[in-house]
UniProtKB/TrEMBL annotation:
Pfam families: Meth_synt_2. Residues 15-333 form the Cobalamin-independent methionine synthase MetE C-terminal/archaeal domain. This is Methionine synthase. InterPro entries: Met_Synth_C/arc, UROD/MetE-like_sf.
Length: 345
């Protein structure tokens, strides 16, 4: 990892995944900026409806690819529809709220990064339809156009945010559909129409088309069981994973990720309130067990690991969302200050 990336993206930091409960962007921004001083993020508020969710925000950043919706979801269109205008209006409102919260926090400014999230090219290609109703993923030219459009739009978005906040930017590509894209498990337009699996080299090319176009470090994230080999081979600086979905078979891939010089963002805090609320030490133990089993020193937790909730918090109550950030911050602090004293069980 280059010195320039290390200056912006570092271990021992608490951050969020993306989504947040409620519909008030100012309240959400103020909470996240206040609770996550090391790496706050631009929240998504999907409760506001169409255009405010992960796919709507991703489509809003596309350049020269107009879109609208159908009863089945988002679809490319001959000209921008009302949904496209609404999605971009929501994004502008969220940016205004983040800028206000940033300034109220005392102009953290230089040296304090901010994270932006967007659906990655594989997930957008899997979930957005062409005009004819087929998934973008089924058309090689269309998926290439989508990746290039997203790369350009995301670079513009990052530049605008960096200028408005006078802060370095970290980018996160959310790829919850990546595994389904590789496995060929996405349904087609009918029972007789299947979507073929995308070969890993082609998937990697789409992912890296977006990543390599960015001047900011990029995290690749999935709340679902991740295709670790694909993510590890990408140009991303870090991988963000829900620890609860990792299997024993994934351990070698996690170790290879660290050996490759990439950082990990470990999702350790439940994204909705559990039946019995765990303490931060119990949750921190999951990360400790992981590095111990991999044979890495405990200082890896401070140097190479960031901490986050397991997934977005849109499905949580406002009370648990705030509590989740508190727990996340407590774990990151412990990894930095006292990793050797933490229990692994």
């Amino acid at each position: 990892m280059s010195a320039a990336v290390e200056a912006v993206l570092r271990g021992g930091v608490a951050t969020g995944v993306g989504s947040w409960p409620g519909t008030d962007p100012r309240e959400a921004a103020a909470t996240v900026v206040g609770e996550l001083p090391g790496l706050a993020h631009l929240v998504e508020l999907p409760e506001r409806g169409v255009g405010a969710d992960l796919l709507g925000r991703g489509c809003a950043l596309l350049v020269d690819l107009p879109f609208d919706t159908t009863p089945r979801g988002y679809r490319f269109a001959a000209r921008p529809g009302g949904v496209a205008r609404h999605a971009r209006d929501l994004l502008r409102a969220d940016l205004d709220a983040l800028e206000e919260a940033w300034e109220r926090a005392g102009s953290p400014g230089i040296g304090r990064p901010v994270k932006l999230q967007v659906a990655g090219p594989l997930t957008l290609a899997a979930e957005v339809e062409l005009v004819n109703g087929h998934r973008v993923l089924t058309d090689p030219g269309a998926r290439r156009d989508l990746a290039e459009s997203l790369a350009e739009g995301l670079a513009r978005h990052a530049a605008e945010v960096a200028k408005r906040l006078n802060a370095p930017v970290v980018l996160q590509l959310d790829e919850p559909s990546a595994a389904a894209v590789l496995e060929g498990s996405l349904p087609g337009t009918s029972m007789l129409d299947s979507v073929r699996p995308l070969p890993e080299p082609e998937a990697l090319d789409l992912l890296d088309t977006v990543i390599r176009a960015q001047s900011a470090p990029v995290i690749v994230h999935s709340c679902a069981a991740p295709p670790l080999a694909l993510f590890r081979r990408s140009a991303a600086a870090a991988l963000a994973l829900d620890v609860a979905v990792l299997r024993t078979a994934d351990l070698d891939g996690i170790g290879e990720t660290l050996d490759a010089g990439k950082l990990l963002v470990l999702g350790l805090v439940p994204s909705t309130a559990p039946a019995g609320e765990p303490g931060w030490r119990e949750l921190a133990a999951r990360g400790v067990r992981l590095v111990d089993r991999l044979g890495f020193p405990r200082r890896t937790l401070a140097e190479r690991v960031l901490v986050s909730p397991a997934c977005g918090l849109a499905g949580a109550t406002p009370e648990w969302a705030r509590r989740a950030l508190d727990l996340t911050a407590d774990i990151a602090r412990a990894y930095t200050e006292e990793p050797e004293t933490l229990e692994a069980e």
